[in-house]
Prior knowledge:
Blueprint: H1 5-12, H2 18-29, H3 31-34, H4 39-46, H5 50-59, H6 65-76, H7 82-92, H8 98-116, H9 119-131, E1 135-138, H10 144-154, E2 161-164, H11 169-176, E3 184-189, H12 195-206, E4 210-215, E5 228-231, E6 236-237, E7 240-241, H13 244-260, H14 262-278, H15 285-289
Amino acid sequence: MSYSVFTRIEDAYYDLSKSHKKIADYVLENYEIAAFLTAAKLGEATNISVSTVVRFATSLGYEGYPEFQEALRETIKGKLTSTQRIEVAGTQILDNDLLTSVLQKDRDLIRTTLTSISKDDFEKASKAINNAKSIYIVGVRSASALASFLFFYFKMIYDDVRLLDHNSSSEMFEEIYRIGPEDVCIAFSFPRYSKHVLNVVKYASDKGAGTIAITDNDDSPIAGLSNYTLVAKSNMVSFVDSLTAPLSIVNALIVSSARGRRSATKKNLAELEKIWQEYNIYETMEDAHSDE
Length: 292
């Protein structure tokens, strides 16, 4: 686990100046608000100068206020309720150009993910998936969309892929109890973290299966239990978390898997194309213009 903001403040508290203690008290008591205040706004809230706020951040070991703020956001992200998220979002999204604001945030999340994800873990995770006998994919609530998307394409590549997207622990364990050392469990978990997913990953790990976490940071509950962690930033937009960066990671895993099993994938897709054509699954251009 990383050296959290709260731990840093507690360790340094008695050596802080009077002004710094005032900032520390405000942050500890109002962290859900402080995490989304600029240095100037935090200074206004505590009636302390901006320069003193910046020095407070550096006194805790951060390079500057932006790094302190990002660390605070990461620390509290899983603690915010949906109502608090809506309130915070009002300070983050411009109402006069909401579309641009949201799209720009998604773009920034992909850029940040690209610099923070471990490419070594990605390569090793891809290899583990390709070598697995059975692949279990778990994701619930909003993360179930990511799990379902990965499952849809993995079914075209691998022979034994299973999706666990139940909100019941008992149903999940009924699906995964046969998992073993030759298998892989891919788990999605983003704030607010699901205990069901954590329990499944712990069980898979205890059974000796390979475990791959796709989550928002290295300190998320499932990261410590996983062999490989693929960090995808998912900072919140309103009361929801952006899944743009996690979906990009999923796309990369699908492409990597298809390349790793090129012959099998081509054969499977060829068989599927025959079925789709024979049973008229997809609308063709001829169908679209037949009524004209």
